[in-house]
Amino acid sequence: GEEEKKKRGELFEVPEIKFTKLFINGSFVDAASGRTFETRDPRTGDVIATVAEADKVDVDSAVRAARDAFDHGEWPRMSGSERGRIIARFADLVEQHADELAALESLDAGKHPAITKAVDFGNALGSLRYFAGAADKIHGETLKMQAQFQGYTLREPLGVAGIIIPWNFPSTMFAIKVAPALAAGCAMVVKPAEQTPLSALYFAHLAKQAGIPDGVINVVPGFGSTAGAALASHMDVDMVTFTGSTEVGRLIMKASAESNLKPVYLELGGKSPLIIFDDADLDMAVELAVSANFVNKGEACVAASRVYVQERIYSRFEEKLAERMKSWVVGDPFSDPRADQGPQVDKVQYERVLSYIDHGKREGATLLTGGRPCGQKEKGYYIEPTVFTNVKEDMVIAKEEIFGPVMCLMKFKTVEEAIARANDTRHGLGAGVVTRDLDVANRVVRAVRAGVVWVNCYFALGSDCPFGGRKMSGFGKDEGMHALDKYLALKSVVTPLRASPW
Ligand code: ADP
């Protein structure tokens, strides 16, 4: 039936593009400069839309609108349950338009529409509904304090949030940051990535329909060094939450330090280890390694790009992996619903990944599979899923985040060695362990320095599961109740126990 076809992606059509302007104070408007930029279809490199390009002037107007909505508007002042009701309505509208949104997102980012609907929008909806439910559960504590005093804490909406998101999971990122900000009662300015501005604008339209007041959500597509930087250094923005590269994370902190010292929260790159012990179910382990590296064409900050396999099963694992990759399909996600992997998001990323692959070859790693571009008729940013073996820890491909379909396979002997090598990185985002031995699993879980550890699974996340890294993978959590803290100011209030203690 229809649903079956939809699951396979056969009913998704390339959508019409409806929203291409900046969304400021509840209206779609041109950039003050009149400038636009192009967003392209990664399957062909062709332009799919020209989008209004925000720069500093537009970010200023968006922040002014948010400031006004926060300082004088009803959003932070209405009851939590009323805010929750409106966020839930927003979620319902997103769900009603999920087919179109998933197709739009897939067109902009080179994704598979059926998977995008199930996963990206599944997560986005999960987050909107979770925080709709959280909006009336924000409360402080009572403090006994010392003899003559008592106190309590208030958790107040922080103010204007700056939200800067990347291109790999644009809708999920939008929702996991906007939903808690809304629940907390903040107003916000969202800067989507220049590669993928379309879904955020569609979200803005739905937010207005849902009844979120004008100025509470503003969306300013544009480039990082102009629009993004203007937001990060704005004197009237009260916090910034950012997901993206480690280099830009550094710039965001600097911008805060040099402006108003706004708190910043960073979810940055990773080089996450997946450790497979010799008692593992081999088929499952292969499947986990494959999905942990090649899902979303490897454009995932938690991709398990370092796969450690214990000596005794190493060669069997290698064989099975090579065999498995023969049935992995790279192709146009719209015309070939069987495609497991679409094109990289843009030319820059495509060339970057290919240059890492070249680097790996020159460093002396061996190609087990892939290693070449595979566009159709020389078009599109497609790359073969690539597995390197004979990888040494000090090679660039084992150290730096590649952000593409490239797996490094390495061999280890003992638990201690695996833990030491897993932790021998500047990053600390995710980690995975595959074993049937609970003791071994627990040892790895406790010892590995990462924000999330998966045991006999990978990539499993959810709206109640805090997500965010350690070390140079950043700090601060998206999802789960902890995520609310970023958007709330904790205020302590102290009163005397008796009317006049003196
Ligand atoms: P990637 O390397 O994955 O493209 P980036 O870190 O460059 O990720 O981009 C993530 C987001 O940060 C995008 O929205 C981008 O426009 C924005 N960005 C890039 N440079 C800056 C900057 N200097 N200040 C603020 N935001 C930026």
UniProtKB/TrEMBL annotation:
Domain of life: Eukaryota
Aldehyde dehydrogenase domain boundaries: 28-493
Molecular function, one GO term: aldehyde dehydrogenase [NAD(P)+] activity
Residues of the active site: E267
Keyword terms, alphabetized: NAD, Oxidoreductase
Pfam family, one: Aldedh
Signal peptide region: none
Coiled coil: none
Tagged with keyword NAD: yes
Reactions accelerated catalytically: octanal + NADP(+) + H2O = octanoate + NADPH + 2 H(+)
InterPro entries registered for this protein in UniProt: Ald_DH/histidinol_DH, Ald_DH_C, Ald_DH_CS_CYS, Ald_DH_CS_GLU, Ald_DH_N, Aldehyde_DH_dom
Tagged with keyword Cell wall biogenesis/degradation: no
Subunit structure: Homotetramer.
Family per similarity comment: Belongs to the aldehyde dehydrogenase family.
Protein name: Aldehyde dehydrogenase 1
